[in-house]
Specification:
The protein is α/β, with parallel strands linked by helices. Helix content is 31%, strand content 21%. The protein has helices spanning 2-6, 11-19, 58-78, 99-102, 163-168, 193-197, 210-225, 243-254, 282-289, 311-316, 336-352, 388-402, and strands at residues 23-26, 29-32, 87-98, 104-115, 118-129, 136-143, 172-177, 231-241, 260-264, 323-328, 375-380. The strands form 2 sheets. It has a 9-stranded mixed sheet with strand order 3-4-5-7-6-8-9-10-11, sandwiched between helices. Helix 11 links the parallel strand 10 and strand 11.
Length: 404
């Protein structure tokens, strides 16, 4: 069956499957790129509670199954995010009302959080369109690439964060850099929020690590948006690529104030199913980036079938809000088909809410985006990246759901 499915998902992808190598070796492990050798697997039932009760309505989902799944991801994968702070402060450090040749209002904001007598500050960059008469919906990017991508002076411009394009579309656009709150290195990730504000988490097997901190920071930006009258706080779309895409899903799963989430090429422990063992596996991601996840996740490196969750359940935690994921033809490492299947297996939760989901029966072909749906998806040509094609479809999807 799997072999038949892969033959129906587009000629470009089929060509890759036929002519590219079917295995690789990385960090001492064989990496599988052969759809026919994906092992048989059974996904945990997204609508079956720990007590064996079938979830049949939104009340049971919200009161029983959703909290249960959130707790499982906290305990076994991403770590539990500490609640509460002593104080939180926002300071506009730079402002230009006629940025982008008069099109936008630039604000650079410093967010400072205090806890236990210590503080951490990190900056955000925000452009708001001047042509709007009402508060602007906003795209917030978790920037895991060079900070030059989000240059507030616009001397350097990047397709990773095409601020001018977003402004011209009537949206505000904001970003923070993930390493400003947790350096993206296994020997220093703890420097910043963890060591200063929540040091106890470092000693806990279920304590949050880097991805948990990056998600925490996204929620602090949401706290700021609530204070800015130029921003429509009810229309905040969170965007992340790769590790940022994993973070965006986890942040939106926890913080229901995010109205929409876009996860680009997020792969293992992001949008793609772990049990497929295609491309990057739990074992490989823990070997290379174990500091992104809690200590408990390491137990499943060679025993994925005992993990009580899989990534379709992470998508389900975002319901009923719209979610959009992407993949690229040259990024088999991120298991494009597994990412699409996560959406398919999360659909029953959207069905509980009566949300319109227009996923095709088979994975869509290359450059055929799914827009008119509560769950969006595209499989574009090209490499592991976030680019203009992605942003163009993000805007289309946001326009539909925000009625912009």
């Amino acid at each position: 069956m799997k072999k038949t499915v892969i033959c129906l998902i587009g000629l470009n992808f089929l060509s890759i499957c036929l002519y590219a190598q079917k295995t690789d070796k990385f960090m001492g492990e064989i990496v599988n790129y052969d759809e026919s050798t994906v092992p048989a697997y059974t996904l945990p039932d997204i609508l079956l509670t720990a007590k064996g009760e079938k979830v049949k309505n939104t009340s049971a989902w919200e009161k029983k199954r959703r909290p249960e799944l959130l707790a499982l991801f906290e305990e076994h994968v991403y770590g539990k995010t500490p609640g509460g702070l002593d104080s939180l402060k926002f300071v506009v450090t730079n402002e230009k009302v006629d940025a982008m040749a008069g099109k936008a209002h630039l604000k650079e904001i410093k967010i400072t959080a205090w806890n236990g007598g210590h503080s951490v500050s990190f900056p955000i960059v925000l452009f708001i369109p001047n042509k709007r008469k009402t508060p602007a919906p906003v795209f917030l990017l978790i920037n895991n690439r060079s900070s030059r991508n989000t240059d507030p002076e616009r001397i350097e411009k990047s397709t990773f964060w095409p601020a001018e394009m977003i402004i011209d579309s009537g949206y505000a656009i904001a970003a923070f850099h993930h390493s400003d709150v947790a350096p993206d290195r296994k020997d220093s990730y703890q420097n910043g929020v963890l060591k200063q504000l929540f040091p106890a988490e470092l000693a806990k097997d279920n304590g949050m690590k880097a991805i948990g901190v990056w998600a925490w920071a996204a929620s602090r930006v949401m706290d700021y948006f609530k204070t800015d009258k130029e921003i429509d706080f009810n229309k905040v779309a969170l965007v992340g690529h790769s590790r940022g895409g994993k973070t965006a899903l986890w942040a939106a799963a926890q913080d229901q104030r995010f109205a929409m989430v876009f996860s680009s090429c997020s792969g293992s422990t992001g949008a793609s199913l772990a049990r497929r063992k295609y491309g990057e596996t739990i074992s490989l991601i823990n070997k290379q980036f174990g500091y992104w996840f809690n200590n408990n996740y390491k137990k499943y490196s060679n025993d994925v079938n005992s993990l009580p969750v899989d990534q379709h359940m992470l998508i389900g935690l975002i319901v009923p809000r719209p979610v959009y994921t992407t993949n690229a033809t040259e990024d088999r490492w991120a298991d494009p088909y597994g990412s699409f299947l996560s959406l398919v297996h999360a659909k029953p939760v959207y069905d509980l809410y009566g949300k319109k989901v227009n996923l095709p029966k088979e994975m869509p072909g290359v450059n055929i985006p799914i827009i008119n749906s509560a769950m969006g998806y595209h499989f574009r040509e090209g490499k592991h990246d976030l680019n203009i094609y992605d942003w163009t479809n993000f805007i289309r999807f946001a326009n539909l759901h925000f009625k912009s």
